[in-house]
Design brief:
The chain is mostly helical. The protein is built from 27 helices and three strands. The protein is globular and about 115 Å long.
Length: 629
């Protein structure tokens, strides 16, 4: 390991400086200053991340450690704020700063004229700061600060338009749901520190890889950390916050879904791969939760009518694919899909933002259609990203998703036929719901309101240029041999069977599934969705269940919110607050009033009464002295 002087600290502090400057001066100095700071510093952070990566590779890939300061010393234990750069954290830093900078540029056009313009860019910079702290922190303690920080930033950005009660509630829901997962994360950290005596992740992996940690402890640690990951990366049963996170501005949705917050759980499990290699039961649980999340979210996306909600459930599903790969030991492949997903999902969300911008805020895909000729740049880039997520070759999603399905079948670390089958079915559904979205928004006849249709316009160049860049990387990102690049850190699992013929058959089958999804979407939705609507009328109960998102929110409402609301009202409020606390205070106040009233009678103004009181006092003093002296 080599030491570095200041570069990683600079990388982390650049977006923090943007937050402070725009937060203090942005509103006063105007949009030019806000853009220069809010966009310029993330671009500088990306260039610094490139510089750090080049320095890492020049040193042969040897991890770089940069200690900033000593946080605390407790007995023999020293807790430091230190940054750690290896190939995994370098890839994550480049994704966070690169895609994040593009989203900042896009925001110039999207948020122009908003009265909270300076505040928006301050929050966006704060988001990047905490995410960089998360991916570059050497210890779980520093990572956890970033982990909580992105939760705070997401709360601020999801509820950015807090004057709207619905949007404010969405931010609160995201914040509280993530705290549930964070409780598991904290317990996992406590157990690790008790067992290993350190929170530095490289040393933790070494300790677990040494085979000296009991299986039960490794399993418990793996499950507890994964509970934290389910909250941050929106896996069942803690997935309910992510669709509601669409309440924030669309670039915020792109930042959360593509480059920052939801990828944190995937990064955590990949970073702690040394633990999970020693905890096969925890890995099996991760694979099962991942593939079930991917499938269930894909089925819900089939019937969503809000353009951003379709993409939100798509993100949950794609994260499920990543956890499927993590669960079968293909950690590098999971990061590969995270990498490709960052580009095509950012392109999709920002493309949706361009559509919403063109339609003056309309988000219902049933009121769209025929936009391909009206906003061609948005359509072209959206179509490329749609094909990429559907897995059509030679686009980015084809390579990473194919690798996940192959290891789900063939991995010797938990691969199974049922994982592959359910994953393949989910890949088919992905192609179906994404091409459904493409058809209903851009193709076929127009279903827009006449007033909306008259004002359709392409987005400004600050938005469309970003879409073009993201579409370009949605094409080529899969050509990078990222799993091979990460193999020294994240070894590829051994295969149960290594048949080239079977692998090529799997690839061909995956392409056929993507084409089937495309064909089905074209047939069902080419005429404004008439055939699709007729098909769903035959399965009304299923449609109602999917449209109701399996009624998970309603289940939480009945089993958690209502009982706790009753307990809070009847026990804590009425008995605890009103009877015990208020009653005690009111009782003391009443006692004081009664005492005051009694002593007030003594002050009668009668000299005879004062003389008698003095006499009684003297007698009492004499008696006390006689008894005690």
């Amino acid at each position: 390991m080599t030491a570095m002087n200041g570069m990683l600290t600079l990388l982390v502090l650049l977006p923090l400086a943007g937050f402070i400057l725009n937060g203090v001066l942005g509103r006063r100095l105007g949009p030019v200053f806000v853009n220069g700071v809010g966009v310029g510093l993330p671009i500088l952070a990306f260039l610094t991340a490139l510089w750090a990566w080049r320095t890492l590779e020049a040193g042969g890939g040897v991890p770089i450690i940069e200690t900033v300061f000593t946080w605390a010393v407790i007995g023999e234990h020293v807790f430091e704020v230190a940054f750690y750069l290896d190939r995994l954290s370098a890839v994550m830093a480049l994704i966070v700063t690169g895609v994040g900078a593009l989203i900042h540029i896009y925001s110039i056009g999207y948020m122009r004229g908003d009265e909270g313009y300076a505040r928006y860019f301050a929050y966006l910079n704060l988001f990047l700061f905490f995410m960089l702290l998360l991916v570059l922190g050497r210890s779980l303690l520093v990572l956890f600060v970033g982990w909580e920080g992105v939760g705070l930033a997401s709360y601020l950005l999801i509820g950015f338009w807090f004057q709207d009660v619905t949007k404010a509630r969405a931010g609160r829901k995201a914040f509280i749901t993530n705290r549930v997962g964070d409780a598991g994360f904290l317990l996992g950290m406590f157990l690790i520190f008790t067992t290993v005596g350190t929170l530095e992740m490289d040393r933790i992996n070494e300790a677990f890889a040494g085979g000296l940690i009991p299986l039960g402890v490794a399993t418990a640690v793996g499950i507890l950390l994964f509970i934290g990951a389910t909250g941050k990366s929106a896996q069942i049963p803690l997935h309910v916050w992510l669709p509601d996170a669409m309440a924030g501005p669309t670039p915020v949705s792109a930042l959360i879904h593509a480059a920052t917050m939801v990828t944190a759980g995937v990064y955590l499990v990949a970073r702690m791969s040394g633990v999970y290699l020693e905890a096969p039961a925890a890995s099996t649980l991760i694979a099962a939760i991942g593939v079930l999340t991917a499938f269930l979210a894909a089925t819900i996306a089939l019937v969503q009518t809000d353009i951003k909600k379709v993409l939100a459930y798509s993100t949950i599903s794609q994260l499920g694919f990543m956890f499927l790969a993590l669960g079968v030991g293909a950690y590098g492949v999971a990061v590969f899909h995270l990498f490709t997903h960052a580009f095509f999902k950012a392109a999709l969300f920002l493309g949706a933002g361009s559509v919403i911008h063109a339609l003056n805020g309309e988000q219902d895909i049933r009121r769209m259609g025929g936009l391909a000729r009206r906003i061609p740049w948005t359509f072209g880039t959206f179509a490329v990203a749609t094909a990429a997520i559907a897995g059509l070759p030679p686009l980015a999603g084809f390579f990473s998703k194919d690798a996940i399905l192959w290891f789900a079948l063939a991995s010797g670390q938990g691969g199974a036929a049922w994982l592959w089958a359910l994953g393949s079915l989910t890949a088919l559904l992905t192609a179906l719901y994404m091409f459904r979205l493409l058809w209903l928004v851009f193709l076929g006849r127009s279903r827009m309101e006449p007033e909306t249709e008259r004002h359709v316009h392409e987005s400004p160049v600050t938005m469309t240029a970003v879409l073009v860049v993201l579409a370009f990387f949605s094409v080529i990102a899969g050509w990078f041999a990222l799993p091979h690049y990460l193999e020294p850190l994240l070894p590829v699992p051994a295969l149960r069977f290594d048949s080239a013929l079977l692998h090529w058959a799997q690839i061909g089958f995956a392409v056929v599934l993507a084409l089937l999804g495309l064909a089905a979407a074209a047939w069902l939705y080419q005429d404004g969705g008439r055939r699709g609507d007729e098909a769903w009328e035959r399965f009304q109960r299923l449609h109602r269940m999917l449209a109701g998102k399996y009624f998970v929110d309603e289940l939480y409402e009945r089993t958690l919110q209502r009982p706790w609301r009753w307990l809070s009202d009847r026990i804590f409020l009425r008995l605890g607050d009103r009877v015990l606390i208020d009653g005690s205070l009111h009782g003391l106040a009443g006692l004081a009033r009664w005492s005051a009233a009694v002593f007030a009678r003594v002050q009668s103004g009668s000299l005879h009464w004062y003389a008698w009181m003095t006499l009684f006092g003297l007698v009492a003093v004499l008696i006390w002295v006689w008894r005690h002296v």
